Amino acid sequence: MATIAEQNALTATIRSWPERVKTFYSDVRTEMKKVTAPSFKEVQATTGVVIITVFLFAAYFWVVDLGSGTVLTRCSATSAITESGKESKCCNKRVQNLCRTKKKTKLERAAKT
C-alpha cells in the first residue's frame, strides 16, 4: 500500500496537470506566431531543385541498372549456353571453361542417342 507521502505526491501531480497543459498550449501559440510561410518564389525554387534532383538520380540509377544487368547477363553461366548449344561470350576463364564443359556434355548426350 502507498505511503502518505506517495499519495500526496500523486495528488499534487494530478492537480498540477491543468496548469501544465495551459502552459504548454500557451508556449505552442507563442511559437506558432514566429512561423512564416515561404513566398511563391521560394516554393518555385525548391520545387525546381527537387524535380532536377529526381531526374538526376533516375538517370544515375538507370545507368547503374543497365551496367549491372549487362555484366550479370554476360557472366551468368546458366545463360552462357543457349538451347541450341551455342556458346555466348563469357566474362572470365572460369566461366568460359564451365560453358565449354556444359556444351561438351550436351553434345556427348546428343551423340549417344
Layout of strands and helices, then pairs:
Layout: H1 4-33, H2 40-75, H3 93-112
What structural keywords apply?
2 domains; 113 residues; elongated
Care to describe what's here?
By secondary structure, this protein is mostly helical. The chain has two domains: 1-33; 53-113, no CATH class. It is 76% helix and 0% strand. It has three helices and no strands. It has helices at residues 4-33, 40-75, 93-112. The protein starts with a helix and ends with a helix. 3% of the residues are buried. The model has no long low-confidence stretch (mean pLDDT 79).
Low-pLDDT stretches are none
Largest sheet: none
Q: How many domains in all?
A: 2
Please work out how many helical segments DSSP would assign.
3
Mean pLDDT across all residues, rounded? 79
Would you count the extended β strands for me?
A: 0
Radius of gyration: 36 Å
* Helix/strand/pairing category: mainly alpha
Distance between the termini: 91 Å
Gross morphology: elongated
Our estimate of the beta-strand percent is under 5%
Elements, N to C (H/E): HHH
Helical residue percent band: over 70%
